[in-house]
User: What shape does this take?
Amino acid sequence: MTAETSAIAAAAGSGPPEASGCGPGLAPDDLPDGLVVADEHGRVVCFNAAAARITGIAPGDALGRPVGDALPLQDLEGRRWWQLTDPYGGLAIRRGQPERNLLLGGREVLVSARYVRAAPTGPVRRLVIALRGTEARRRTELSHAELIATVAHELRSPLTSVKGFTATLLRKWERFTDDQKRLMLETVDADANRVTRLIAELLDISRIDSGRLEVRRQRVDMVAAVRRHVQAQTTAGQRPDRFLIRMREPLPDLWADPDKVDQVLGNLLENAVRHGAGTVTIEVGPADGTSGGEGTSVTVSDEGPGIPEESMSRVFTRFWRGSKRGGTGLGLYIVKGIVEAHGGTITVGRAPAGGAQFRFSLPVAAPAFLG
Ligand SMILES: Nc1ncnc2c1ncn2[C@@H]1O[C@H](COP(=O)(O)OP(=O)(O)OP(=O)(O)O)[C@@H](O)[C@H]1O
Ligand SMILES: [Mg+2]
Assistant: This one.
């Protein structure tokens, strides 16, 4: 064992490195995060490649030096971190420091530390410091900023129209005929619906992203649900012969959240009608080969242009839309979130007739529910 690997083993507090299950061949330079280890005298004995990349300090300049000199960390107010935390002299029960955003010569670094003691309240034998760059966090912040920008943009266009028409009607009420006023009010009504729908979708997304989407399971008759959705489409003006429902028996009982199953079916059918073409075939059958064992699968296929191969991996991401004719691009993201909250899976592919084919499978019920 080299001094470095023994330092990692000691840091893990679990004897030889093999005990961690990581195997004897793991070297500090294999770690994706920065690792700095100081011995009982506070001298740097390990400074891995990622630490060098994150800090811009060469290992040769750090090894053997007091850790406070080798890593002159400061908090965001400019105070010297080593003085604040005092790992070797502080409270003897302290086991480390939680992750903090610190500064190192103008760079931001995420730092956490672990104090390894010989005995629970004994002196610090090793100081193990983990360093992470802030790019990952910045990327998350950037994606939040993008989300806000997109949402603001999506909300603005219907609201601009609502504002425009209401202002015009208020100013020039007498000058318009009843038909013109009706048309404007219908547009205002449709745009208000769009805003309401968008807000409902955003709430769903925030629940999906934070894992708070609630699934209230009841017995669901999937074939009946599909029939209802086809009926709704024909009532809304689609030709009845545009839809074909197929059923493969025997169907197992399904316990799922009926409102959410409706959302999934509604979105997939609407997409097939709006983005696809030709006959829309909906096949309901037992799910074969899903990881949860028994379940129900639903396949929605159309005869339209389909989804290009290179875009298939992106259809379930939020705000992705293939053409200008698309809506907000949130539908399939929510569909996937709902299916996965049920413990199911969804895939996209090419239909036999060339269009898009979406297939989702729901297990009979989640194992936790059955238990
Ligand atoms: N059946 C289909 N055939 C061809 N393209 C499709 C089909 N279904 C979805 N797409 C493509 O995938 C994109 C994303 O679909 P998604 O349902 O997420 O969003 P949307 O329908 O554009 O908007 P929203 O559902 O939020 O109103 C669509 O814009 C469309 O380009
Ligand atoms: Mg859609």
In short: DSSP finds eleven helices and twelve strands in the chain. Residues 89 and 305 are 70 Å apart (CA to CA). The first strand starts at residue 34 and ends at 38. The mean pLDDT is 87.
